[in-house]
Design a protein that fits this description.
32% of the residues lie in helices and 29% in strands. The protein is of the alpha+beta class and 269 residues long. The N and C termini lie far apart (56 Å).
């Protein structure tokens, strides 16, 4: 079969290839959606479904030389004993996550094969806990619900400022496509201050004070519970968005919620 709707990358090291598979599974991909090609026998197995024959036809009739180059490179990689990982990604959100994980384990020539064309997917160096709020804000400002949802586990939970709870990645995506937490088209969400508390080498709690400017301005504290899924790659298991109450209307006073209200910030509330 032609690798339609698949993110593909080459990993040269066996231990990294296996670690990438484990990270993909932890990221929510089904085992059946992941294929790893390493030997000539693997090519023959895929060819039983017409992969190579259709690959040759594609080379003849397709017009994009970049697609030719990358398809040929992946076949050459397998024949050279490297590990070509193929991940079925029917949605853009899965494409972002799969490519990010492959890059984390040193994959080369990472790209997405759509129905008609190949698209290269560049690498991000890493994703640390303290970067999650900025990535969240950027996705909101770009009205990119797929990029936002890709920050979260498949079974993650998100509680918004109204107390509404989304119970998985897909519901988080729908809730922000677009949603009130992302603001109106002319609103900008900015990160004022971020703190990280490491609970272990694998788990951290991130608190971010954020300001939504423009239409209906507001200040919130967003709490992210994150965990490691790659070498330097972190995903959100849970998030909770809480409105900041101005001190002058806070009935609890200095000994209560005002401590949260006065969360350190580079900007006024």
């Amino acid at each position: 079969m032609y690798p339609t709707n698949r993110v593909i990358g080459t990993v040269g090291d066996e231990s990294k290839a296996r670690a990438a598979i484990d990270a993909l599974l932890r990221g929510g991909f089904e085992r059946e959606a992941i294929d790893i090609l390493h030997t000539e026998d693997d090519l023959k197995r895929i060819d039983a479904h017409g992969f190579l024959s259709q690959f040759q036809r594609t080379l003849i009739r397709a017009l994009d030389p970049e697609e030719h180059k990358h398809l040929a490179h992946h076949v050459d990689d397998v024949r050279a004993g490297r590990y070509v990982i193929m991940v079925l990604t029917k949605r853009r959100i899965q494409r972002i996550l799969a490519a990010d994980i492959l890059h984390q384990y040193g994959a080369e020539f990472v790209g997405f094969y759509g129905r008609w064309a190949w698209e290269g997917i560049p690498a991000n160096a890493h994703r640390a806990p303290e970067e999650i709020p900025a990535l969240f804000a950027r996705a909101c400002n770009n009205h990119d619900a797929d990029a936002l949802a890709s920050l979260f586990d498949e079974d993650a939970q998100f509680v918004n400022v109204s107390g509404l709870c989304w119970h998985n990645r897909e519901s988080i995506r729908k809730g922000h496509a677009p949603g009130p937490d992302c603001g109106a088209s002319k609103s900008i969400l900015s990160v004022d201050h971020t703190t990280v508390k490491r609970l272990s080498s694998e788990v951290a709690v991130v608190h971010a004070r954020m300001t939504l400017s423009g239409h209906a301005p507001r200040t919130t504290i967003v709490t992210f519970v994150v965990h490691r899924v790659g070498v330097d790659w972190w995903q959100c298991a849970s998030a909770h968005n809480t409105d900041v109450i101005p001190p002058e209307t806070n009935p609890i006073g200095e000994a209560g919620l005002s401590g949260l209200t006065n969360y350190p910030s580079s900007q006024p509330s």
